[in-house]
Amino acid sequence: MQLLQLTTFQSLRRSLGLIIQAAPTEIRHLIWLNIIAGAAPSAVLFLDKIIIDEVSRLLSQTQTTQPLALMLSQPILLWSIAGVITLKFLGDALATISSFVSTSLRDRVQGFVEGKVLEKVANFDDIALFENPELLNIVQLAKTGISQIQKLAFALSFAIAGVFIFIPSVTLAAGIAWWVPLLMLLSSSPSIYIQRKYSKIIWKVIRKQAKITREMNLSSGVLTGEEYAKELRLFGLQELWLKRWQSQFLQFFTEIQLVRKKGAIVVLLWSMFSRIGVALPFIYVVMGALGGRYTLGDLALYSGLIVQVEQSLQILIGNYTNLYDISLGVSPIFQLLDLKPELQSPIVGLASRQPSLQDSRPDSRSTKYAIGIQIKHLSFCYPGSNKSTVENINLTIQPGEMIALVGENGAGKTTLAKLLCRLYDPTSGTIAWNGKDLRSLPIAEVRSRIAVVMQDYARFPTTVRENVGFGNLIYLSDDIAINQAISEAGISAKVKSLSQGLETPLGKQLEGGVDLSGGQWQRIAIARALMRLSTAEVLIFDEPTAALDPKTEHEIYSIFRQIAAGKTTIVISHRLGLAKIADRIAVMENGQIAEIGTHDELMELNEIYGSMFTRQASSYI
Predict the structure, then answer these.
(1) What is the model's pLDDT at position 274?
(2) Burial letters for 503-542: b for 16+ Cβ neighbours within 10 Å, e otherwise?
């Protein structure tokens, strides 16, 4: 899978597109609010000039003991004062409203973008996204990018405000002299370049350190996660993992802090140069007032405008730097959103219909296509690895046959199960279902016909009903179907003992939640698979009795034999008691099928399987 490389401009353009898509109403409101708010400071300065000039004129013309009466008799002065007061009130009101709109904009954008990322990850067919370190780094950076795009919403509102403050300020400042705003802008340019340069360097460090960040999160999960809590304390591992997290944090912090320190020093030196752009216009105005070219009102107006232009430039430069930083930070979001899985469903054209599982299901009137699952010259390497996990496997599984895949840990059994479920596509070779290559069939349809209990089954933080009903959403509200699956999985007594029955939350992290033992959770996972029994044509059980005691294991064996009747079944297990009930046994070793046959045939052969079975049987004597 290739990651798309984006320029900062492309990231910024797409980020702005997401913001507009997420919150168009808030964007419109912010623009209008900032147009009004941006013009207000310059208007206040202009009215202040009129007030100062009017007061100076009146003081030079007359002395009065009734200043209120004098003020009320001067319409220009009176209206100017009223205008300043009104604009001040308006500014306060607009600031409050803008803060509300900006916060709403931020939250809408965060929810929208986070929803896009979650949707992409949840619907990504290729589970390499969760097993490939490079892709995991992109997911980690994309999660960080969500908070960055949230900052972009605020930066955008400030940038809009800066623009609408800058335009009227520069227009009025040009009245001092044409070169004043130009000098201020040019003197600020070096710091813009330097900040951009160091932002890019910092981002490169952050991107390089995505691995460390992910490892920090893993260490944090160990220290705070429920699944580690008991052993962390029993083995006294708290200090070790705390030191590990602190070491990872220090490694992250030291490198990035060094870059930030160098950048801050250089930016500080160049910002001193930008002060010249403020000092020269200010001296020019003071000298003009002393020379009689400017009134006291002009002095107040122009001095205020110089400060205002400087402030608006700082807002714009600061937000430009923020926007640049954010553009770098959000690029992984778009790399993730643009990422294409290597697993692809065929596109159904109008001219010719693609094959489907309906085509591959055996017809009771014909056995022409009833040839089950055919695996030919199958090899597979996990992404990022050069070593084949399974290699040159050839195997045919007959319709309705139960076959057991056995072997030591790491022999490739679970990998083969993932390929059969089309969680991955083979590196080479094919898997065919009744003569149809799985890659030619829609992924969702293939998976809808398979009932699976994985070795690392999910423990959903929700109710018993949903934990079981997720196996077939059509029956989520069907108490009879759910209770039947629970009964067949041998856990109905436990469910009935729960205070809320099917509505009992599972997991202590939920309010009122109940935790189950490992074996009970595994039975829930088996019940979930049983919910799909009516539509499933293939059953896959990956170590389905690993957490069960021998007595319960025997019960589950008989259940499997009943539910597997008429279904093509693949059972993966290193506990060979289950293998005995299979029609055939395939022994895997080093990613290849080393032996295949019935239990009796393999015991008579007395090689790998015979040795494994004898060794396991002796542990029960």
Answers:
(1) 63
(2) ebbbbeeeeeebebeebbbbbbbbbbbbbbbeebbbbbbb
Burial 407-418, CB ≥16 within 10 A → b, else e: beeebbbbbbbb
Beta bridge partners of 405: 572, 586
> Token digits for 583?
């029609």
CATH for 8-338, among 1.20.1560.10, 1.10.3720.10, 1.10.10.10, 3.40.50.1220? 1.20.1560.10
**Helix (H, G, I), strand (E, B), or coil: what is residue 401?**
coil
Total count of residues recorded for the chain? 621
Does residue 30 carry a pLDDT above 90? Answer: no
Can you tell me the mean pLDDT for 384-412? 87
Q: Are strands 568-572 and 402-406 parallel, antiparallel or unpaired?
A: parallel
Alpha-carbon distance values, 556 to 31, 319, 482, 553 (Å)? 66, 64, 18, 5
Single-letter residue type at 507: G
- 394-403, 440-449, 489-498: range with lowest mean pLDDT: 440-449
Three-state SS for 134? helix
Give me the pLDDT at residue 353, please.
41
What is the 8-class DSSP label of residue 453?
Answer: E
Q: Phi-psi category of 429—alpha, beta or left, where left has phi over 0 and alpha has psi -120 to 50?
A: left
pLDDT of res. 351: 35
Per-residue pLDDT reduced to its tens digit, 106-142: 888 888 888 888 888 888 877 777 777 777 778 877 8
The Cα-based distances of 293 to 279, 288, 299 in angstroms read 19, 5, 10
- In order of 19, 232, 248, 382, the CA distances from 236 in angstroms are 48, 6, 20, 35
**Torsion angle of C-alpha atoms 85, 87, 93, 96, degrees rounded to 10:** -120
What percent of the chain clears pLDDT 90, i.e. is strictly above it? 9
Average pLDDT, whole number, for the chain?
A: 77
Contacts of 242 (CB under 8 A, 6+ apart): 223
For range 467-478, the mean pLDDT: 90
pLDDT at 370 exceeding the cut of 70: no
Taking only the tens place, the pLDDT of each residue in 353-368 is 444 444 444 433 333 3
CATH class of 460-534: alpha beta
The count of C-alpha atoms lying within 13 angstroms of the C-alpha of 613, restricted to the half-sphere facing its C-beta, is 21
Confidence grade of residue 494 (pLDDT, cut at 50, 70, 90): very high
Asked if the model's pLDDT at residue 335 lies above 90, the reply is no
Q: Evaluate if residue 303 carries a pLDDT over 90.
A: no
CB-based contact 368:399 (threshold 8 Å): no
Half-sphere exposure of 34 (CA within 13 A, CB side): 22
Q: What string of H, E and C letters represents the secondary structure of 92-125? A: HHHHHHHHHHHHHHHHHHHHHHHHHHHHHHHCCC
Is 481 exposed, middle or buried (CB count within 10 Å of its CB: 0-12, 13-18, 19+)? Answer: buried
Can you name the CATH fold of 360-449+537-621? Answer: Rossmann fold (3.40.50)
SS3 labels along 253-277: HHHHHHHHHHHHHHHHHHHHHHCHH
- Give the domain ranges of the chain: 8-338, 360-449+537-621, 460-534
